[in-house]
Amino acid sequence: MNPILHNILSWLLLILLLPLIAGIFLPLKIYKTLLIIYARFHRTDFTGILTSYDSIFAIDKFYKKPYAGNGTIFIVDGNIGIEKIRTGFLKNILSVRKSNGDYQFGKLFQIPINFYGYFFWSNLKTIDLTQQIRIHHTFSSDDHETELHTILGNMMTQPFPGALWEVLSFENFNRNQTVIVFRIHHVLGDGYTFNHLVDRLIGKKSEYLVRENKRSFSDRFRLICTAPSRMVTLYSEAFTHRDLYTCRKVNTTGVLSMTTLDLETMKKIRRFSGTHFATVGMSLLVGALRRYLLEINQLQYLPPWVSVMHSLPKPGHPLKEMVNHWGVGLFKIPLEKDSALARLKQAEVNFEKYMNDQYKEMIHSHLPLFNLLPAKLIKLFFSTNFGTGIGFTSVPGFGKQADFLGHRVTMMYKVFGLQWKESAVAAAVYTQNSSLGFSIFANKDILPDQKAVDRVTKVYLQDEFRELLRECGIKENNNYTLPSVKRSIRAEGYA
Q: In what order do the strands lie in the sheet with 425-432?
């Protein structure tokens, strides 16, 4: 359709819908306001109402099968006693107070309660540290890494013990190491909130690289004039696009695998291609999934692209507060392209268009209306393509060696939970020292077992990384050797 005609029709549609929008949201606004007043006098255990960004994750079942749990994995030298971990967590996080005497991280003592359709924060009466911070597993097999990944995959949807976080110790990893898993529900805070908690445990300060883009008056005017047409495009594509990842899932559990890439080499790819770091990560993920599809020959043809929902942090994050202060982007990542570099460049074009057209800001602009929706409608919304496909997050860490309670950290990973019941794949990239941890957590409808997810993560992701290096003409880091893997994928091309 002609862009001018599309914009005119979109404005007409918005004008026609305004009475309907007002008729729906005005009563909800009145009801919610009255409910807040009522709760203030009749529920003294409530400390406040959740924001729209929090409520998106509060629709989860915390004590049955939660999907929005996220984790940080520490692999450290030596064996750390569980009492030392409890003492360190209590000192560095749970006991920290603000100048007014309140707990700095008070949400660690709270849970959301659904009160007549809306979520309110409520204080827990007690927290049992022996349940929240505990020994979870002692390694016994010959393949500790596979054993760890299998347990973590099952653990990500296990009920929380009381508070919506836990610290688990895995002893005797590789005979002389300890794995510590800090798992927290997304409703308590976003990736940068989680980073700040981790920083307090390791004595580092993670990078915060979010900047606000300043736009000219003419650019802002153009974006306002075309806002309705872009809104129509955004939601029509989100609600109508179908691919093998947005389909309904039968399985309700997932499988997890983690691998490591060289951070400096990743930066060289970004500089050579003139792309964003997140675009490289999303392109590698989709390229690895593409290789898996070619191997199993599941489809008669590859769709031209798949949609990846990428978390986009907002500027001005209050890093010391536990908040969800984020945005989101739905990015088209090419799937049918043979070339890894061509896939990356097209992904960057799509990324730039999304960001330059301010789709992220547009989503923020109408979240006040979204905030008026009761819990059941929010849950219905995230059963659509907004919550059924691929999710990706990229969080910068720190650039130096870290210690966890006096023990050297050899590697760290972030694990991004599926977030919603129908989500297909959740991938997380986390930078630490000179390494990049890459984790993939997938619904079993997409990757059926540990062997499949290990193949995608440890074989095809590494293959895609090598291919991208070759096409960019970049040599591998002499101080870092990519894992040697056996390739079973047949020649490129789709039968």
A: 254-262, 435-443, 425-432, 390-398, 305-313, 326-334
Q: From CA 39, how far away is CA 42, in angstroms rounded?
A: 5
Mean pLDDT of 204-210: 78
Dihedral sign computed on CA atoms, order 332, 343, 463, 206 = negative
Query: Which amino acid, 31?
Result: Y
What single letter denotes the amino acid at residue 123? N
Angle between helical axes of 461-472 and 277-296 (0-180°, round to 10): 120
Q: Which two tokens stand for residue 446?
A: 């997409």
How far apart are alpha carbons 429 and 422 in whole angstroms?
22
Under 8 Å between Cβ of 185 and 68: yes
Look up residue 390 and give its amino acid.
I
- Which two three-digit tokens encode residue 231? 């809104």
At 2, which helix (H) or strand (E)? Answer: none
DSSP one-letter code for 207: -
Percent of residues, the chain, with pLDDT higher than 90 = 57
Full-model pTM: 0.90
Q: What is the pLDDT of residues 350-401, one digit of tens each?
A: 998 888 777 667 777 777 788 898 988 888 877 766 667 899 998 888 778 8
28 within 8 A of 376, measured Cβ to Cβ: no
